[in-house]
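Case 929 in the screening queue. Each case pairs one protein sequence with one candidate compound; here the compound is iron/sulfur cluster. For every case the pipeline is the same: read the inputs, emit a complex structure as tokens, and attach any notable structural observations.

Predict complex for case 929.
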Amino acid sequence: MKQEFKRDGSELVSCAPVSKWNDWVEYDAQAWPRKVARHYELIPTICFNCESGCGLLAYIDKETGKVARFEGNPIHPSSRGRLCAKGPAVINQIHDPDRILYPMKRSGPRGSGQWQRTSWDEVLETFGGRIRKAIQEGRGEEVMYHVGRPGHDYIMERTLQAWGIDGHNSHTNICSTAARVGYTLWHYADRPSPDHANARFILLLSAHLESGHYFNPHAQRIIDGKMAGAKIAVMDPRLSNTASMADYWLPTYPGTESAVLLAMAKIILDENRFDAAFVRNWTNWQEYEPGQTFEGFVESLKRHYERYTPEFAAKESGVPPETIIRIAREIAEAGSRFASHLWRGAASGNLGGWQCARALMLLHVLTGSVGTKGGHGLNAWNKFVPRPFSTPPPQKGWNELLYPPEWPLCQHEMSFLLPHFLKEGRGRLQAYFTRVYNPVWTNPDGFSWIEVLRDENLIGLHAALTPTWSETAWFADYVLPMGQSSERHDLMSQESYAGRWIGFRQPVLRVFKEKRGEKSDRTYQANPGEVWEEDEFWIDLSWAIDPDGSMGIRQWFESPYRPGQKITVDEYYGWIFENSVPGLPEAAQKEGLTPLGYMRKYGAYEVTTDVYRLNEKPVDAEGAQVQPNGVLTKNGKPVGVMIDGQPVVGYNTPSRKLEIFSRTLADWKWPEFALPEYYRSHVDRHEQDPRYAPTVDWPSHARGDVYTLLPIFRLPVLIHTRSGNSKALYEIAHKNPLWVNPVDAKKLGDVRTGDLLKVHTEIGYFVVHAWVTEGLTPGVVACSHHLGRWRVNKDDQVERLSSAWVDLKETGKGQWKMRHLSEVEPYTSGDPDTRRVWWSDAGVHQDITFPVHPDPISGMHCWHQVVRVECAGAEDRYGDIFVDTNLSHAVYLKWKALTRPAPGPDDLRRPLWLPRVHRPVDDAFYFNR
Ligand code: SF4
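Case 929 output:
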């Protein structure tokens, strides 16, 4: 461990060394100037406050048995001891005086806020009975699990497959589906794993350094790359902190990013600076014009992209042509060491945003920077998901509430349309679990969610599994408290650098107590109150559904070591660590530990760093047939491809190559997009193509000039709706004003920072403060995600240090009004700091005023909004919201009309080769099998 300096014989180190984790001694700062030593036991776990899975160390005071604080785990290969502000803030979350400590059951009408405490046994009996009946009566599709932040790998898919139901729903289509579709069409893997640390040029299509996906692990490696000489370019209409650290800021007009990327591709092609050998070997160019030579294909490609001149891209985007040319040349120069990242931002904001990933990947393909050191890796290569002791078979059914025929190519479930599907009579839910998911608040069109959540004919029984109160939990029948980062078991692995690792989240108080001989049968016995964890909940619920094993469900939750007995979490993870993680048993043995003991001690393990060019891995060709296109098949399934006469594994696509030409798009009714393309987004300021972009029909009250609203940039210290219980984080960030360029502020009537503006969407409006700033392109306004939490009762539940108390009214059918009654105020609780709350702003809930915008191909909700902005009137107040859900349903229908529904070839619902979350049997992909 790095020793920083020595003074008076004492050491100040950046992290506590592992050798001292059992008894780490510090002087008590509160006792100063006396020297009072305090002894801590340090137990590792994994942060649950975003998807990155950074390693935490819980400092447990040995005298009080309480967690005193969290720091970074230096052993964790991805986070390397570093954390963002949200990691240490776990301490606020576990000591939150407003947290839910016991399972609660509704005792009045839904949404009335009347609750009574119940027992876990009653919860298991109620849901076990209801799910059993639904499955036995062939209504398994009426059971649905809907997840926001998963925070685990595979265990939930396994559980639902053990139940035999097609019931997994996720939040992904309001998050990252667009980019995923673009990447998948190229190489099956749906996420990039850039090797920033070794790159020479890094292109970020987001505020990735400060708040992106895999935020802390990527940020430190982007800076490693920069320190080693890499140049950074950031494409973002907003001058984010990331853009301010870059060598180039490209403030593209929203939705025009693909035009700029394709112009760069054109420059690289025209100047013959592309890696011809890579393109020839590793793309499916032969499929574009069968019979054509490679040279002929290159000429065709040049012709195809002729219209993407730097001047055209400049006109579309506002980025000067010379900047586009310069960056294209620098990317070409970086060659195989060109890294990039795109996740939400441009992809998630725009109609056709998935094309950004297609266009960005074209740059990687041309520079040969796929799978290389310093280039673009595949998530499938760097993420490690070990298999448990048994795997249930895939389910037989296909749930059209999840994957409806209109969106056959959507990567994930069309989850944000669920209220509209239920209203259309496409189905109903008998048992609905929302898990770390707050659709009323986080999704667009939250009032439509309230309308279906309160309707017992549409949703029979709803349990919110959640670590915190939320606007959605308010409308549930059961609120079931689940653990924070340090209160639960999970396996985590992410493609956060050029390596493969696994992290073990664990309930640190349970581990601490068990080391002292205090055994817990269930994690809620060691956690505060009766806060539980999902792993044990699903095991116990599966036994409650099938108590005697006659349904064939229970067998999947029986111990591999004690036949017929219920499995424990120690056995579940112990088996995985013993059998499914290469090298871990040997590493553990060297230390005289069991593999489970090793993971409980260290919390993380690096499996390998041999992750480059895995497409070139040799494949066993014995017994394989070589198809005319070089693909190797066994039993009709592709297993590899011949490259330069050698059988190698290739990519998991139909051609086993990178698909520059997407046969899938051509066959599934979108032939015009078979090559990476650009078309104008729904927020484009030019004339749009009516084949793709629906027109905006303004409600009668909408006034003011038209702008594009960017509503999805993140604040680096907040966590969607899960940080409302962290006083440290809300003290740092608690406002979401509307960013307005001074040019627009003048046009709006000399608006100044702090003035009230009324922002009209297609279905309503919100009233917010202005922030006049030059850090944004004129014609565009922006408002950050995360803020605007609300509660309907003054003193109850939903975190008071982050929410406004509101008056919520439905004044007519589908006419919803919200007005702030009071902002954040100091209050008395078990934490004296809540009396010291000095901020009053809770922000404004903008998402609830947005209609749904499902992209017809990716299924992504296209977040950016065309809005009208005017100065607020005398009757308007800060935080006012109005929405008409009749209009929101009309907008849904308009976007649905853009789709080109299944069936595709062979009467398929969806291409067989495309991944599907919680994948059913192949037969389920066909309409009539
Ligand atoms: S980036 Fe921050 S919030 Fe995310 S896992 Fe790491 S420490 Fe936690």
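Case 929 observations:
- The longest helix spans residues 120-136.
- The first strand starts at residue 3 and ends at 7.
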